[in-house]
């Protein structure tokens, strides 16, 4: 039986693993995909204290190596259920059942889709949720960025250095993110801001994305944009419904927890972007991982 099972190997989960190991406890980490979480998609990380500039992949790799060097065990298995059995918590994965004294859920949040009829079918066929991952496939072409917050602005800037034309379609009358990056985007040749608009339909040709219908939210007027790629950047959404029996969710599906990251169930903690909070940044993910790990270790000590 492990001391603490951590679900998710993103920045918060791996930070928790580091603190668990340094506290003299054994951490077992489960990850359904690949370690690193959303940060691996970032071309550059320049707002983490002490790191002037590093790629998201490099940051995730270092974090993984640090956790495993301390003795944390990481298994690539998908968790399907967590059961509270008093002083023992059962974690059921797609490969078996494991027990621990405490559990930290750090499942992060996933890209939010536009919710259009053929969107899912066109993923990988012109529709993407990661500009830094797929942008190079559209060199010299025309693309659309759906969204106007920070991620969308950074995606559009990145794509403007590769693509011939970048349309930015955003529901607001102004970009939802201000600062140097937004100013650079406004002045960038080849970038057209279509504010006050929403992508309302996706066009396809031969099974591939071929453009989009956009609707002016003030007038209702529709317009068709011809493009070879669509990059969706309208935020993230948690996937926490499977844990509702052990951890309370807010109206948006995020975990509610106190300042120690404790849920409504003793011994069950949450950390990172899956948790209800005002700010979701790399620094806050790491802070949550630290807090949850120390609280879980304290909980185990009290068990005796």
How would you describe this protein?
With 304 residues, this protein is of the alpha/beta class. It is 23% helix and 29% strand. It has six helices and 17 strands. It has helices at residues 11-22, 56-69, 131-134, 150-160, 180-187, 282-303, and strands at 2-7, 27-30, 73-75, 79-85, 88-93, 97-105, 110-111, 127-128, 142-146, 165-170, 191-195, 197-205, 208-216, 222-226, 229-232, 236-237, 268-270. The strands form four sheets. Strands 1, 2, 3, 4, 5, 6 and 17 form a seven-stranded mixed β-sheet that branches. The chain has a five-stranded parallel β-sheet with strand order 8-15-9-10-11, with helices on one face. α4 packs across α5 (180-187). The longest helix has 22 residues, at 282-303. It is elongated, with a radius of gyration of 21 Å. The two termini are 15 Å apart. The model has no long low-confidence stretch (mean pLDDT 94).
Give the mean pLDDT. 94
Question: Biggest sheet, open or closed, and with what strands and sense?
Answer: 7 strands, mixed
* Quaternary organization: single chain
General shape: elongated
- Count up the helices: 6
Radius of gyration: 21 Å
Proportion of residues in helical segments: 10-25%
> In terms of structural class, how would the helical and strand content be classed?
alpha/beta
Q: What is the ordering of alpha helices and beta strands?
A: EHEHEEEEEEHEHEHEEEEEEEH
Low-confidence stretches: none
Number of strands: 17
Distance between the termini: 15 Å
Approximate strand percentage: 25-35%
